[in-house]
Structure formats: C-alpha cells, structure tokens
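Hey all, quick one. A colleague (J.T.) asked me to put the S-adenosylmethionine job into the tracker so the inputs and the structure tokens live in one place instead of scattered across chat threads. No bug as far as I know, just bookkeeping. Sequence used:
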Amino acid sequence: MTLFTFRGVKSHGWTFYDHIKFDMNSNALLDSQGRSVRYIRISVTDRCNLRCQYCVPSADFVNLGHDRILSYEEIVRIVRIFAPRGVTSVRITGGEPLVRKHLERLVTSLSEIPEIKDLSLTTNGILLGKSARALKSAGLSRVNISLDTLKPERFEWITNQSEVAEKTSLDDVLEGLRASREAGLDPVKINVILMRGFNDDELMDFVALTEENEFEVRFIEFMPIGHNGFWTADRVITADETISRLNSFCDGLESLGKGRGAGPARRYRFPGHRGTLGFITPISSEFCVECNRIRLTSDGHIRTCLFSDVETDLLAMMRNGCTDDQVVAAVEKGLTVKPRGHNISKTGHQPTCARTMSHIGG
Ligand code: SAM
C-alpha cells in the first residue's frame, strides 16, 4: 500500500521524483531510491531457436550447461521467497523460454503461489502453436510475442536462419499468434523493434494487425545492448518520430494513457480498431524512476537493472545451502546499488553491459 509520494523538485543538485512511492509493507524489497520490487523477469534458459542479428551472439557462442542453469525447483523457491515481500508479477523469458522442456510445469508451480497475480511470457512465438493451450491451462495469463517483420524473406534474414539448426519461418510465429488467441491468453502483445532501414516501411502493416484483432502492437526503441554489431544510433526510431509518422498517414490516433500490467508502455488506438498500439521508450524517455523490476538470469544471478552488471549470485548461495533469510539479505544488499537511471540516449552515453540479451533475459 502506498503511504506518500515526493513531488519532483530540483534542489542542491538532487532531483526528488514525484513517482517514488513508499511502501507500508514492512517486508517490502526496497532500493535506496525508495522504489519497491513488484515484478521479476525470469530467464529460464540462455538457449534460443533463433539467432536474431541484434540479440544472439554468433554461432561460436557456448551455451551454459544444464547444471549451471537454475532448476524449476530453485526458480520456484526464489519466487516463493519474494512473493510475501511484495512481488506480484512474474514474466518468464529467455533465451527462448519455450525451448526449455516442460515449461508448463514451472507455470503451474508459479501460478499456485497465492501472491502472484500476473504470470506472463515473452517468446518469439515459434513453438507457441504447439504449447499455447497447455500453458494457458497451467495458469499463464498473457503473452508477448516478439516479431520484427511481416515479410518472410526479412524474417529469414533478421533471425539468421542460415545459423539455426532447425529452420523456422514467419508462418510459425503467425501460427503462434493465432494459437495464443484461441487458447484465451489475454492480452496478446506483439513486440516490434523498429529499426531504420530494416522494417520502418512496415509501420502501417503492423498497425493493420490491430484493425480486426485485439492485439497490442508495441513499438520498442532499439537499445544499445546485446549483440551490438547491428546497433547504430541512426537505426533508432523514437516513439515521437513513430507517432508523428502515424499521424501523417492517418487521422484520429487517440492516446489511451498507460496499459494493463506492470509495463511502462504509452498506449494509443486508431478509431474503429479493435487492438491498440503501445510505445516503450527506453531511449527517448527513461522510465527508471518508476522501475519496480528485477531480473533473474538463467544461471541464477539477480540483476537489479538491465544495464548494470552488478549481480547477486543466488545459484551459488542456494547450492551451498543458504537459508531464505540469507537470500533476502543478499538481494537487499544488491538493491542498495540499483542505479537511479540508466542514462542511455540515442547519441550520447551507452552503458557497458557484459552480458547479451539472450543471457540476461529481455
Ligand atoms: N526469445 C524471446 C523473445 O524473442 O521474445 C525472449 C527473449 S528476447 C531477448 C526478449 C525481447 O528482447 C525481444 O522482444 C527482443 O526483441 C528484445 N530485444 C533484444 N535485443 C534488444 C535491443 N537491443 N533493443 C530492444 N529490445 C531488444
């Protein structure tokens, strides 16, 4: 429960933000800025069945062995420790989470934790056609499907099909989208990174997906993280630029404010469309002041910020027999150095980040 908030004022070189909320839950996991942790993103594997140009390292990258990955039991233990301390949302991600066997077993166990009210999945959608129904039955509420192009030949190129063992196609993802809707996962969001010169000419094709379908198509600003050979400042298209392009194509784009769930998206809709558009703006408008999330990497490290390499190794602690209280104490210590903001910008400072997105869990 919120007790009070600060107004945003600048004074003596310090900025006090009006979003900072103090939590009356005395057990709450708080960082040194007073932000409480409500949301954990869990990477269940560093493996992926795609090799996206901007995300996954090249073929000679060695994946972690099975024994260096958290077991489902260890993941559930961590969430059980955090849940009474205010964590209510869990997102399963990767790597590609659906390449890990029996993911529905993890979903079932997490959905049985009473405090967890929101259980979601981020996936490339390739394997969803086969698994959406089982995941929904196991207790998954909603899904985000990453899809950067609606053109088959571009899909083949951006996902680097020449380097993957088992070839897949855009049709597999479209089948995953359809299966998710049919299974009753709600909402189904489509994550698109707009990259100048690659897919920005498809903007209205993505908008068209919202005409007949209740999808939320979310445009994410391209971040300088991951397999960065592909990132350049020129490729970044900010939300403002995208919105102004949309306004030049069509009248009536209406702002809907913030979206469902714990995310930072600004939402819009075209009149008469069943679905919505969302904009995630890590580059043009940092939302760190509202950050309520931590990440658990597939090898069991807690990262309090996507862009900070300061990590707490829970896997080693747990395998050495630590208590739940020791886990909490270690995470609280990590939270004391959670950065106030990442300060990345389109042309300016770029964070150094030793891990790839596929390792951290996007
Ligand atoms: N394999 C799953 C998928 O494709 O959704 C989950 C992992 S993937 C790392 C999660 C998300 O991170 C995807 O939506 C991907 O597009 C996004 N991502 C990866 N690199 C990114 C970057 N440099 N900037 C913005 N988003 C990025």
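Adding what we noticed when we looked at it: Confidence is low (pLDDT under 50) at residues 1-21. The longest strand covers residues 118-123.
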